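Quick one, tokens below:
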């Protein structure tokens, strides 16, 4: 193998590790969200403004999709060359994927699309047809923590994933 090909392959690995980590992070946090908040705590469903059958169906579809993303990331991790993924890129990607999932969920699904809220149990009438935070201000503290935690996790993941690119830059300049 030529040294040019080897350098190109090495240069792509942090990006591949980051993408694999993002998939794993989305799948892991999707699993945690489904298990903890949907099933064990029963705080919310994926789609709130429907009957029980619709809520269970929407949760099942969400669970199936997050599991497929987790399996995709796991396959990518399993199917790599041993030691080819820099750890901080992979871990940074997991944090970016997981935190990004939470931030997207809170901002887009909760605040923009009104699919559900973090804790629907604090709302007086969950099936009112209007899942807006404006109709259930008691959920606002949960929303703020949910979104800020997601953004903080993304920020830490970005810092962590840059360690590999910073190390490569300093090594290449020597």
């Amino acid at each position: 193998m030529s040294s040019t090909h080897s350098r190109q392959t090495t240069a792509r690995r942090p990006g591949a590790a980051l993408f694999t980590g993002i998939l794993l992070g989305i799948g892991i946090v999707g699993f945690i969200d489904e298990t903890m908040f949907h099933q064990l705590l029963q705080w919310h469903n994926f789609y709130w403004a429907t009957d029980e059958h619709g809520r269970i169906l929407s949760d099942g579809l969400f669970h199936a999709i997050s599991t497929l993303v987790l399996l995709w990331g796991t396959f990518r991790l399993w199917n790599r060359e041993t030691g080819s993924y820099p750890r901080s890129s992979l871990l940074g990607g997991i944090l970016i994927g997981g935190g990004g999932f939470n931030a997207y969920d809170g901002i887009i699904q909760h605040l923009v699309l009104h699919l559900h809220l973090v804790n629907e149990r604090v709302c007086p009438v969950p099936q009112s047809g209007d899942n807006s935070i404006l109709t259930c201000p008691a959920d606002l503290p949960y929303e703020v923590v949910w979104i800020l935690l997601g953004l903080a996790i993304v920020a830490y993941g970005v810092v962590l994933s840059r360690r590999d690119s910073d190390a490569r830059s300093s090594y290449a300049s020597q």
